Batch of 4 targets.
Target 1
Amino acid sequence: MEGDEPEYVEAVVQREGKIIFVGSKEEAFKQFEGKAQKHDLNGETMMPGFIEPHAHPVSIGAFILGNDIVAPHEWRMPHKTYPAATNHEEYIQGLKNIVKESKEKDYVLVWGYHQAWHGALTKEDLNSVTNTIPLLIFHRSGHEFYLNDVAMEKYGVDTDKFESKDQINPKNNHFWERGFQELKTKFISPVYADKERISLGLKRMSQMMLQNGITAMTEPSFPNSEFHSEYDLLKSETENYAYAKYYLIPGFPEQFTLKMSNEDFHAYIQKMSQYNTENIEFLTDQFKSFSDGAIYSLALQLKDGFANCPHCHAEWIIPPDMHKPLFDFYWDKGYKLHFHVTGDKGLEVVLDMLEDAQKRNPRENHQTTMHHLGLFDEAQAQRMKDLGAEASVNSYYLWALGNKYGEIGFGKERAARMTGMKWLTDRDIPTSVHSDFAMAPAEPLTLAWVAATRVTDNGTVKRPDLKVSVFDAMKAITISAARTFSKENEIGSIKEGKQATFTILKENPFEVDAMHIKDIKVQGVVYKGNFKVNKANNLKK
């Protein structure tokens, strides 16, 4: 998966988790006959292990997988398939069904609400679902919460004690962005520390990773709530399921909740390597920050504003005047910087800061990476190239939002060019794709499929001129994904000296129609030389 086109080899030999030979079958047998255990692919395809370069396995992923889902699209999870709820009535009925099934629980938490499908959500709606059980609604964006009155009372939520008054709505029990961060840490932290539910969610996360061939997952801005509660649960799960590695990047949410100065948080980051294990690694030379609001909340910053959306409200997670000192501090310390940017105005602000930093304190090969990139234009892609910026795109935005946001929020022209990856790959900007799980399914082949086909949820294709090649789409889940967090010299391709970690597929993605890529079966994974079979697909080794 390096270079400009697929390159094939007949044989790979590993020893103690490292690749020691890549080449012809004849030469492999000549050197290693009688010295190695043989595994025949029998016509199946082995690729570098699939990489998820931006997800949230504990605080969002396991949090959701340990609770329930009512969302605009169907969600196929390891334990259950949740049907789509496409309007307000279906959404409220979905909540009632879950509450009815949850009588033994001391609270009900449901992820997936989105106003563009489900309409306005009021506390009266939630109180009508149940006025006896605490009900917490986690927005589809992962950046907002709604509570019924019983939940407000149970967790002692006092809106007078919030610092982020502009990002809460006390009349509707609604909290977003920094208000959401305060709600998490000051009031509903027991929900985020529910070990039983999150442990269950992490087990399901491991099942999902195997099913989808994921052998490495990076979480930018770990933790999202409290360090030890998240770390301890993740560590425990990696001891149970030892077929993938987690790379963790510290960032703004923890610094904000700990109320640490830049200097103090920098010192704190440098001590995180003490928590490294065989399957967990803290990247202490990297930092994750945030620009504009969530795309799923229609709270992103757009240069030309919103279309047909009077209720939309552009937000800054970190306002630009607060953001620049943060940017400059970590830039000057030599960190590799990662930025959550969803709208073109949000991107423009970060590019301005990057340009200023390069003039003031030039750095080569800084690999500053823009994450998500829901909406940007070709001129901004060129500016990223000129400034040495790189990209990790949530390609699924187009599939999930391309049609709805053509009606509400973006307008048809902007919605059609969402996640324009080809503008990046045409400029040789290293570009990965990610799920930001659970903002998209943690399915690398699905993310690659959307990038290569630009198919949306109703089957239509948006801006086919912006399709990337299948090779670039597959690079985006292997070698380019490894580069997103600076591990391209260890994983992401099949090369002597690299980790012997692979994903085994039933079919070759370069030999099937691009429309079929998402349906290729994952037969199993090899992690550091050890096989893990996806039993559902009957791999025989």
Target 2
Amino acid sequence: MAFDGLFIHSLLKDLRPILVNSRLAKIYQPFNQDLVLTFRKERKNYQLLLSANAQNPRFYLTNQTITNPDKAPTFVMVLRKYLEGSILLAIDQVSVDRIVNFRFSNHNELGDQVQLILSVELMGRHSNVILYNEQTKQIIDLLKRVNPDENRARLLLPKAKYELPPLTPGINGFDLSETEFKQKTLNSNFEEFAGQISGLDRDDRNELIGYLEDNNSYSSFRTFIEQFDKSGAFILKTRQNKRKIFPYLPYHLDLVKESYDTDLNHALDEFYQYQANQDWVRQKARQIERIIKNEQKKLTKKIAKLQKQLDQAENSEGYRIRGEILNANLSKVKPGMTKIELPNYYDNSHLLEIKLDAALSPARNGQKYFKRYKKLRDSIKHVKEQIQIAQTNLNYFESIQTAIDNAEPQDIDQITDELTNQGYIRKQPKQKRAKKMTERNLNKFQLSSGKTVLVGKNNYQNDWLTFKKADKQDWWFHVKNIPGSHVIVQANEISDQDVIEAAEIAAYFSKAKDSAHVTVDYVKDKRVKKPNGAKPGFVIYTGQNSIDVTPEQEQVLSRRIN
């Protein structure tokens, strides 16, 4: 289900006891559409994520480590000025709509107490976070400033008066009495009645319809509505394996229960973690991906051009044959001729048309064909070398793209540093030095046998893991001939089951993660070498064994231990 009004109602029942009367200690904006507010209460810190992402607008407490950017955006600077150190007095929902107001009390520059509201509007592409003065209703600032031409319903700019967005009128199910229920359902079918209840998305409406079809009574309606006053969360899957989260267990939808969590905030954090990571990575990696795309485009064109030259060189025998035939028939070539047909003794004396330069003598025309032939033959080795270099560079950029696909937001800085050192990104004058590599940078897994598996997420991590961290007797895994992570099993001896599980991890963290059958090579770490001058992440190895596996996301990630 979506983050609809009744879902927000459920979430606030868990959130209010934790955050109300807490002090807002820190505010930062790690990504364009996302804010993180750190509250402190009873010697504990709580991180509240607010996201105005058009695809997944949401808010909840998160335990994820989100890097604070070096430079704070303007909106964050404003929030810090007005809200840091303030007390959160209340969290109110506008009816059962997707608007939540966080009410703060703080002191202005004169020491006077002021009441401020941080309004979070979760409305798809119109989602926004707006700070305004509760008394004057004047907007102080907002996450998304909207040009008046783009939204004529209300003005969304600093100093404008805050107004609610146009809301669809409906029935608040929590306030509906039995008498009103009977009146509303008297002349309406179940679909029409459910459509009038505010705060329901399509899944909730269908579930309510199912309740009323089972038992068309006020008691049945109250049973459905009161589920949103309970704690906990259910994760369910559709037939297409799409995951959905509910604050109750639906019985009338075609869904399969996956798990239950007593803490709705924790469930939301887990539920959105993968998607949020992907969104944040894409935002941080935008510049890198542009560079990768441009380099791949240039290299692909270069390889095609070189391949054409190679094909021409490898099929250059025709120039030699024309030169020989001309030399054998010099007397037949007359001055001023631009072409001549002569019998080809390599092809049953069939006539072969030979183009001529009228300004050259017959002998010089023959020499011209021999020179062209020799030049093309001599170029084969060079062209093949250039194709190999271009293909190696193309593979390198594919490995960078794979690293981005497997990255977490904090990994992008390492990838940027790598491309800077390779000369693809201009070094900034005040660019920070890369942090020292540690095991904490890696992905960590545990096999069913208890053995630990370490996984590099980019080329720098791969090199460090393979040549610095790993013991020479550890086992090294990598997909065959495809960009992917270096995977180390920290053990001298491994069982067949260990091989399967480690190979599945290697396959998942590779370009072939969505393939049904992936070939993975594995070998002792001591047999893995890095050629002199090779790009980051590139290695060679000998004496390997191979295994075919099918990576399953759920199964692989269930073994993760960090």
Target 3
Amino acid sequence: MVSYNGLFPKCQQVLKEKLSKKFQKVCGVIPKQGHSESLEKIYTDLYITEGECVDVSTEHEVRQIEMASKKKTTEGEKTIKYTDIFKPIPGKDIIRRVMTKGVAGIGKTVSVQKFILDWAEGKANQDIHFLLPVPFREINLMKEKEYTLMEFIHHFFSETSDLIFSTDEKYNIAFIFDGLDESRRRLDFEHNEDIRKVSEPATVDILLTNLIKGNLLPSAQIWITSRPAAASQIPSDCVDKVTEVRGFTDLQKEEYFKKNIDDQEKTSKIITHLKSYRSLYIMCHIPVFCWMALTVLVSILTGGESDAFPASLTQMYIYFLIIHAKHISQKYKVTCNKDTDICDQNAILSLGRLAFQQLEKGNLIFYEKDLRECGMDDKEASVYSGVCTQIFREESGLYQKKVFCFVHLSIQEFLAALYVLLNFRRKSVKSVFPNFFRRERGTSQLQSLLSANRLHELHQTAVKLALKDEHGHFDLFLRFLLGLSLDSNQKRLEDLLPQEGHCSLDTKKTVTYIKKKIREAPNPERCINLFHCLNELNDQSLMEEVQVYLRKAKEEREDLSLSQLSALAFVMLMSEQDVEDFNLGDYGSNAKSDEGLLRMLPVVKISRTVKLQGCDLTDSSCSSLAAALRSNSSSLRHLYLTGNTQLGDSGVKLLSTGLEHPNCRLETLELQECNLTDSSCSSLAAALSSISSSLRHLDLSKNKQLGDSGVKLLSTGLEHPNCRLETLELQDCNLTGISCSSLAAALRSNSSSPLTKLDLRVYKLSQSGVEPLSALQRDPAYKLTTLE
């Protein structure tokens, strides 16, 4: 792909030197002027999996992390190293296009940086001759005009300006497009025109779609990274391999802290503290949060104040902001408050306003136009990004154009919550910023918070806002807003904004309101966030009731209320212990119902074995269970539903929508005594025929209305090549020898069937009726070994 005229070795070396210099350093953990760390020294391997996650989770990314922390490695799930991104997979000799997904701050960009550095230093992937990393945030800055592909490449890499790329050369080029979620260009793969010549001019979006499709430089390798919600912009037929960065495992968290702290005693104290607060330790799955926690906790230890370690997310972010505000003052040697060494409070407030105004738009990346729309001029933004480098960054693109961003979405949400609370406080405290807060334009959901005159009104509006968003996009914002309202945290805010004064805020009404909402049984995922909110408000009453309950012997336990069941789900999710075996019947009669199961659904998702025998469930519960089976975060492998006589055919039909889903990994399904008829067999046959079928053991015994026609329908699934069933139980159903003939025919039709055990203990079956199956059992060409 490169015209080789002696320039290739020289250009490659210049490019490697440039990339090595650019990517060998990262920002230091504890901010110091001019301080940076060697990436090689502090890099910690991440947990990266290979394989498609079919559904994109629309949950708030922190919620995804909380669920992922409980997810177990699934059978067949393959982990890979960042160096092997382009390594072939079974069935594909050449991997040209790779999509790497992961939530914000999970380590995608650092993995890219390490990949580039290893290549530039000659340590890995030397079969690539030219590695060209182009972040989408810089592509956004290109002018709206037409470029040839060569002009596009030269635009970013002047080192290649003497080279001519074509489609018929032998040298390998790899592009890395980092941050698809930050792209502001629409990649229309369906309607963009096709171009095949590198000399043909086109708009940037057309160049990108043709490069990814393979119309331009068809042998070039392409690595795209993206937050999950944006990954679908690239069609599946334009992706050869999917990987997912899941952040740090528990062992990798500890390795990270050990690499970044020289003092072993400090390291031990920090790890012990984080482990003692589960919500903080779970957040450490996100490398950016590890860095934040390290910044805060090392600073506190250095000051000899280990007793003041933060115990909640809100406290962690308050400390983080205070530490960097002090750093600003020291770095720029400006006049500050003599008690706190903190200055330039307008910078914090301006960033809060920006965070607030952009949160509802979902923007993590800002450009000068966005800042002007939020009331910040370019000079002001540059000053703030210069002094708040660990909170708000400015990155220079080509031609000195600027890109601004908060270091992580959670910091943006924290500052937005801070802005809302300070806006509320100014109404009851004589503010030193009387002209700073102004009436926000528009009538957005977030802006409605600014009209509240009483704290409980503000909180109730925010709770309603969070519950209304079924995907939880305001969950973390709500946690921060409530945590910042706590009296003890208000006092900490005096360190950040001392002249604002302390405003005592009573949160008792808010606690009562949240408990009322928990009783009303909202979406179970939103309910879990309400317990996080109670934690932020230092109310542990419901969780303590559950802990007392769990300490009792089973025979001494009284029924749990529905609110307590939700608290139980939260306690189990936050526990260090994996939930291997969950039995709903262990928690009283209220639990044995559709409502009880709904409350415990988050626990169902993280359990390998779920026992729901005799729980009076209806088809409504099957809809919930199907949703759990479809979930990316589901660990469910064995499901027992025996004795739910109201479940019926409609329930099995709903459940089968989960069984057919590619995310489903269920291996055992027990449906004894569920009042099933032949109709259920049609739904189950479709599930067994599904390309993603994973069911190994199916028990349909004691369904008296299930007859020969049902078995005939079920046999269409058994004879399908996708069927993985090994054991089928049909005891005490309404079967005759006709069913045996149907089953035998299906197994002979599917010579690859793994079915080895059939249990047909049925009163009406004679020996002559069983003969077709007995003959199959005697035939060594077939796998059927057990016939009862």
Target 4
Amino acid sequence: MFKCVAAGCKQVCTGYAALKAHFYRHHNSMPTVALDTSLTKLKCTVPLCNWQCEGIKALVVHLKEHIVEGRQVTCPVKGCTSVFRVKSSFTSHISRKHKNYLENVICETSNEDTQSAASATTKDSSVPDAEDTVIDGPNFSDLYLRNVCMFYIKLQGQHLLPSSTIQNIVEEMQNIHELGQTYSLNRLNLLLKEMSFADEDIAKICDTVKQSDLFSACHTGPMRTAYSRAQCFKDMFKYGEPKKVLLGKDEDRKDRFAYYVPVLNTLKGMLDSKYWQGLMMAPGVSKADVLSDCDDGKVFMSNVFFQENQNCLKLVLYQDAFEVVNPLGSAKKKHKILAVYFSLLNMPPHVRSNTDHMQLVLLCREKDFKEFGHSRVFSELLTDLKILEENGITMADESVVKGALYCIAGDNLGSHCIGGFTENFSTSQYFCRYCLITRSEFQSENPAIIGPERTPETYQSATEQLEREDVTEVQGIKFRSVFNTLENFNVCSPGMPPCLGHDIFEGVLSYDVALYLKYMIVKKKWLTYTILNRRIRQFKYKATDACSKPCAVTPKALKLSGQAVQNWNFLRLLPLLIGDKVQDSQDDIWQLTLQLKDIVDLICAQQISKPQVAYLNVLIQEYLETRKVLFPDNALRPKHHYLQHYPGLILKFGPLIRLWTMRFESKHSYFKRCARQLKNFKNLCLTLSERHQMLQAFLSAGTVTLPTLQIKDGSPFYLELYSEEVKGAVLHFGFTENNTMTPTDVQYNGITYKKGQFVVSRNDESLEFGELILTLVKDESALHFLMRVYRGEFLPHYHMYFVKDETRRLECRHISKLIDMWPLSSYIKDGNRFVPLKHSVLAV
């Protein structure tokens, strides 16, 4: 964020280029002093030229002649230090920067009286003296080196340039710099000789200039080689070096390693950094019977460690395996990597969802993980987690910060692997990690049945039976999880939340919606696949919906082909896409589709009350029973059973959208991009872990925290310019042009708001939507919305809300007074203006 420092200017820019453009447009004039120069003799400022003229215009023309000769010309306006070698650039500069130079300019003159008058005039404090611009000393040298390091570590960690490319850049930049330096020193030498300096003085001056060259000092010193740069980065920044963990020898008698980034070192670096400190949030106070975040669930509330250590660190681990090469090519599974990341629940949800704030824990080849086992791969991690629980981290002020593992997120396959459960979901009798239901019970007449809950005691009993008897599996458990050795964590407490993306969007929703569409198209003949796909393709998606457009539906496919978010958007917008084609709105299959939409809306809620959880439980039971009756030949899948656990899991973990793995999976893209750009697979895990730690070192070097409120292109709010209706709506808020701005775009807690979007403003007797007309930022921190408020009317045929113009009124409201903060887009269908919800909103 760049705030304009000009007096009386409230502009805030989101980038350096925008700030420069703002200064060019609004603060372009140089500090000048009025001086009548019509009869003043002006002297050319070019060395060894004694030409004089009467008039500034003639002086400018004369200076252009010097440029044509190939000489360097300095701008004649006092206070401006711009230097030119191109005539057109000089002309452009004079016309843009000094538009009034004919009337208001101070040049170097040969008239001593004029010089005295100019020097006696009060000087603008914004123009520094030459003495003020002199920078010297070791502090500046260190600052210069740090900035050079920041540039190269950004190229290496964020832009993923290979070390060989960076080395080439360093060498070529130094060569070019030396050429320029040689030319400058030769010109300086000639100039000093013309000024009759002694040879000894000339040599001394040139040597001083050469010795004070910080660019060469950096590039022939710490930045000289890839090794020296890496060492400099480690000394300069908080670089968490990956630790090599020996796993053993493979079948070819080669040593195999996992690369572990010590969690304790990462956490200590985060706690010491002002950047990370600014991202931490204090423990909040929850509303009664409302679940807003993970610390509102029973898992947190019932954990004695978390209750005794209110300010402790709460870790969320995520593990998953991913391919870095073409999964269909000859190298498939050869370079498949198991990755473990962690995030902190101490940070706000919008910060946790940013992949830059997810920390790397471990990288290991999946083949080595399966061969050498959990104990070896996770040995260092478990040691650090135990120390964190028992002893904590000692800070610089000798205070101790403890922490514990809250949960381990992942898809079903990864969670079952880490927890020691069976990974066979198609034939195993016990396929659920939350209860002891069997496959035959699930396929019975009552699909909504739930088996006895798994507990730490039943888990312990099953693992003891495994040790006593010669069996490979007991109640779906194959071995004891190594993470159960932690004092305050157990995989059956529960410690492994579900993932919405895999269970619903790529599971239940994907299979069931494809089934329902087949019924509507093939059996009912309400539409065709061609019409459906044309509507999907031609629909005018808006805002975030346009970033994840649904995929076309393949006629003979058993499931939707889109990714998780694409399938989510497809179900949300399905009534708008084909609602007019549904000839019988009471058809059981159409009602089942709408019921699935309601279930998804509740599960994805950012905040959810306990009565809503109870209602969700009823909806899911009815849905599964109806689904089994209407489609007896299409068996329910294990993910349908996991859906039955969601109400209970929401009560235990809080809103499940806070723990879904799609954001963690986005972290994989960094490593995939890194591997493809570096093209070095010799020791891939080491390369990827080092590059990632370079990126984290670059991010932690920042000193400015992520602002809660970011605005773009703001201008003062002049109340007198607006209508009486607007004046009445903002009457009691105290908005003036001195304390309030009206930005075109505003971002609050990572969410962008724009004019024309809708927000839910009230949900008591009926739902109300506010259309954003104007965003107002008071005192650079308080965000208000001027909204045109509409009463929402529910359309049962679509299970959507629409608004009508006759219900509108103008209202101003602070953002904290909104029921739901998520911005929504509106769509016109059948003469109605629909506002599809992203998720269910909290009832008040």
